[in-house]
Design a protein that fits this description.
The chain is an all-alpha fold. It contains 2 helices and no strands.
């Protein structure tokens, strides 16, 4: 795996972790900031054909919606 791919996947993982922390803290501003970062990281990953699934490094249920999907917005950016 190339360095760029690893960096993008790490950015997605970090953004998901930040979103989970903001949701846990019930901080609306931080949720909005973290959601924007996650949306951007996922957009970049997909634009370059990089798997944006966080893999096993992310704890069970962390950073996911109730249906197991990411907590991203419904609109594409």
């Amino acid at each position: 795996m190339g360095g760029f791919t690893e960096a993008v996947q790490e950015r997605v993982r970090a953004a998901r972790a930040a979103l989970a922390a903001a949701l846990e803290a019930d901080d609306a501003y931080q949720v909005a900031v973290a959601q924007d970062e996650l949306d951007d990281a996922v957009r970049i990953a997909r634009a370059h054909g990089i798997d944006d699934d966080p893999g096993p490094e992310l704890g069970a249920g962390e950073g996911t919606g109730t249906d197991g999907g990411t907590a991203t917005s419904t609109g594409e950016r």
